[in-house]
Amino acid sequence: MEGMPRVPMLQPEPKIPANQYDEEFRLKIKEYILLHFQDDPSKYDNAISEIMTMKQNVSNSYADVETACLLKRYYAQLLMMKNRFPMEEGDPIKVLFCWYDRAMEIAHSATYDDVGFELACVMYNIGAVHACIAANESRENEDSIKNAFMHYQYAAWPLQHLRDKLNASKYASVDFDKELLTFFVNVLLAQAQECLLEKSLIDHRSNLVVAKLAIHLRDRYQECLRHIENSNLGDYVSSHKYKQWSRTCAIKSEMYGAIAMIHMGCQADDEKKMGARYGYYKIANEHLMAILKLAEKEDRDTMKASISFLADVVGNKLNNAKKENEFIYHDRVPGNEELCKDLEGLCKVRPLSFDPLDPSVGGEDLFSGLLPSGVVKAVSEYEEEKTRLKREVLQRINVKDDELDTFLVSLRIDEIDLNADSTPFVLPDMLLERNAALTTQPDAIPKLLDSLQKVSDLAREAGAKLSGLTGRLVDVDLPEITSDEGYKAIKKELERLTEHHQKARSNNVELHKAIAAHTTNLHLLSLSIDELTSKLAGPAINAGATPEGAALRRVLDKTREMQTQRAQLVQRLTDEMNNDNIAKKLLSERDSDHRETYIAELKKHEETIKYIDANLSAQEKILSALTDANADFSEFRKKIKASLNASVANESFFGHKHFFYHTLFLGFRRSEQIMALVTSYDVYSDVCSKVEDGRNFYMKLLDRLHKLTLAVEGIEAAFGAEREKREAEKRSLEEKMAALKRATETRDALADFSIGGVAQTSLPGVPTPVRGGRPRLGDYKEFYRNKMSGGAAPSAGYIPPPTSSIPYQPLVPGGVPRPDVQYASQLGQPQFHASHPPVVMGPPSPAPSSISELTGYQYHHAHEDPGRQAAAVQQIPYSAVPAMSHAAHAVAHNPALGLPAHLQGTVAPRPQSGPPPAALPQHYVPQQPLPQTNHTHIPLSTHHLRTGPALQYQQYAGAENVPTPTVATPIASVDTNLAGVQWNNMQQQIRAQTLPVSQVQHVPAHYPISNHPQGLVYTPVCPPC
C-alpha cells in the first residue's frame, strides 16, 4: 500500500484585508502616548511605522513559512498593544478594520472598529496559511510527509483558539462561524493523521498499527461528514465547496476503512487465520464498492488514481484469499460484527499551539517602555508569589540536605575505598618522568647537599672579607682621606656588596629549608617503579569485592544519585522562575483582578515541585537502607583499618621516623600523594638551578672583593705615611716638653739652695712659707682647704690673668680658616658655626710634664684585633686654645718657675681682698703671628678624649700676638709625595719662628671631641695602581 497515490486534501482559504493603516492611526497613537503615558511620542515613530508595514505585508498572503511567521509577529504586537491603547469598540482610539470572507462564492467584507476583530482575522489567516503550506507538500518522501504532518497540526490550533477563546463568532463573518471552524479543525487533524499513516506504510510498520491508524481516520471522516450534513453550512457556504467537502469526507472514510481491513487481513494471514483473512478482505471490498459509488461525480484526477490503485489491491487480495480458503484451508469465515467488534482506532495527532508572547515568535515588544500602572503592580505581585513559593521549596530542601550531610559524616564512609575495580594501580606519566630523572642519578640528592655546603662556605668567606674590608676602611679616620671621592666610592661599593650578601644569605637559608622539607618525598621518588607503586597503592584490600561492600556501595550510589537529581531539580526550578515573566500576558488581558492569572501561571512549576517532593520523600528510605548496609559492613571495616595500620607500622624504608606512611595512607588521598611527589621534584629542580646561581654569585663577589682589597690597601698605605709623620711630631714635642721639665726641675733645685735672706716672689698656687723657708705640711693643708672651699683669699704674689686674648685660629688645608669658625677680624673673637658649638677650655696643668703619655697614636686594624668593634668615623672639632703661651701659664700657676725677662713687665699680682693694685707697665712686645697655612689640628689619640665641655681658661693681658706652634701636619690629599713637600716647607717655617722654650705653649692633653659619625655612600671604583 506504500505505492498508493496521494489523495487530495482540504484547507481553508486565507482572508484578505480591505484597508490599511493611515496617518490618522499614527497621530492617535502618539497623542495617547503623550497624554496618558507622558512620554515623548517621537521615540515610538519607528514602532508605529513597523506596525503599519507589517499590516501591509500580511495583505499579500503567500503559502510559505515566512508569511506564517510574519502573521504571528503581527498578531503578538497587536495583542500587546491591546492593553496599552484603548482600541476596542467604544474606546477613544477608533481604527476601522475591514476583511473579506472567502467561504462564500461572492466575497463579503466585514468592518469593525475593534482591534479584537483584527486579531481574529490575523489568527484565522495563521491557520489558513499553515494549512495551505501542508496541502502544497507532495508527500512523496519522508521530509515532505513530516512537514505536512506538522503544518496540519499547526493549522488546527488557531482555528480551535478562534472558536474557544477569542469568541470570534460575535463578528458577522462567515469564516468565524463555529460550525465551520469545528469542521476545519476536525478535517485538518484527520489530514495530519493521514500523513502519519503514509509515513507508517513507507516505514513498513506492523499491520495492526497501520490498521488502528486507518480505523481512526475512518471514524474521524465519518464524524466530519455527519457534522457537515447536520449543520447549516450549506446555507452560507458555496454549493460547490459544500458538495466537494461532503464527497471528500465520505470517500476518505470508506477508503481508510478498506485500508484498515486489508491490513487486518494481512495480520490474520500472519496468524494463519485464513477464514478471518477472507472475511476482512470481503469487508474491504464492501468499502471499495461504496467508494466507487461515491466517486461517480469525482473530477479530481488524484482522487481517481487513488481509488483505482485501491481497487486493484482489494480485488487481488480478495480473489487469492477466496481461492485458498475454498480449495486449501476450508476455514470458517467469521461475520462482519465478529471481525470488527474489538477494533479501535489510534489517534496520534493534536493541535500544536504557539505562544504569541514568546520573543522567538513575536519578537521584542515595540512599545516595551510603555507599561500601564496596573500591569506594573500585577507583575510585582506575581514576583512576590514566585519568591514565596521558591522559598518554601528551598526551605524543605535545606532541612533534608542538612540531615543527609550529618548522617554521611557520622558513617565516615570516605575512609574506605569501596570501588570494586581490580585493575592494577598505574602511576601517571608526570610522576613516571620525575621518577626516571631521579633513578638515573642515584647521587643527585647528596650532590645537591654538597653544593649547598660549598655555597655556604663561599658565603662565609665572602662575609669575612666584607667585614674585614669594612673595618679596615673605618679605621682610616683622617678627614682628608674620608672626604676623598675614591674613599667614598669604595665605601659605597662595600655597603652595596654587603646588602647583596645579606640577601644571598637569606636565599641560602630558604634553599636549605626547602630541600629539608622535601627530602622525604625525594627519597620516596627515587625508588624503583615497583616499590613506588606499592608505596602509593597501599595494601591490596578490595572492600567493594565483598557482598557487604557491594551492597554498601550500591546504596551509596543511590544516595549520590539522589543528591545529583535534587541539585538538578533545584536548578531547573530556579531557571523556570527566572524566565517566567508574565508582563506580556498581562498586557493581553484587561482584567483588574489577576489572581486567577497568578494561579494559572504558578501551575507551570507544579511539575518540577512534584519531582522535588518525590526526591525528598525518597531520602528517608535511602538512609534506612544505608544504615543497614553500613552495619553489615562494620566487621570488614575493622579488618581494613587493622591491615592499614599494620602496613604503616611495618614500614622499613623510613622506619618509624615521622610516621610518614601513616599520614600518607590515612591522611591524604592517592591523588594528593602524587601531587606532593611531583611538587617535591619541581622544588628539587628549582633548588638545583638556584644553587648554581648562588655559586656564580659568590665567585663574582669574591673577585670583586679582591679588587676592592687592593684599593683599601692603597688607602691604608697613604694613611700609614701620615701616621708616621704624626708620630714624628709627637716625639719632637715630647722631647721639647722633657727639656722644659728638666729646666723646671733645675730651677726648683736652685730655689731650694738659694740664700735664706733673699725675699722671693710668691707664685700663685703655692702656700707662703711661715718661717722664711720651704712651706710646711700645715701650709699645704691650709692651701688645699682654701682651694676646696672656693673662698680663700689669693696668696701674696698672685699674678692676675690677662684681660684680653686672641683665640686660637685653626686652619684647614689651603691656608684658610676652618669652615665651622667664622672670624670677625684678625684679632677679634671667633664666631662658631651652629654645627660646632663653642668649647670652653679647662685650666692648664701645673707643669709641662703633666702631658699624658696616652696621647700617642694608637694604630691598628679591625682584622688585627677581631674582638674590637670597628670605630665609627668621627669628625673631631677644634677647641679654642688660650692666646698665651703654655710657659706663661706654667709660670703663673707654679711658683717654682721664674718668669722670663720679657714677661716681667706683664706680670700683675693676684688680686687681694683689698683694692686691686695698679696695672704694671706693658713691656712685652708680642711677636707677629705665623702666616696662615694649610694646617689641620688632629688629636694624638681618639681613645681618651672627653666629649663634654671643659672649663674656661683665665686669659692674660698682652698675649694677643703670641704665635701658636704647629702640632699637626696638613694633608691635602692621600698623595705621599705631595705630603712630603708640604712637610719640608712647614719645617722651614717652624724653624724661622720657633719660640724659646720658656714661651712654648702648653697643649692640653684632653680636647673635647664631638661624636658625629659621618655616613658615607659609595660607588664601585677600580683598585689603585
TrEMBL record:
This is BRO1-like domain protein. The lineage of its organism: Eukaryota, Metazoa, Ecdysozoa, Nematoda, Chromadorea. InterPro entries: ALIX_V_dom, BRO1_dom, BRO1_sf. Keywords: Coiled coil, Cytoplasm, Endosome. GO terms for biological process: early endosome to late endosome transport; endocytic recycling; protein transport to vacuole involved in ubiquitin-dependent protein catabolic process via the multivesicular body sorting pathway. Residues 902-921 are annotated as: Disordered. It is found in: Cytoplasm; Endosome. The keyword Cell membrane does not apply.
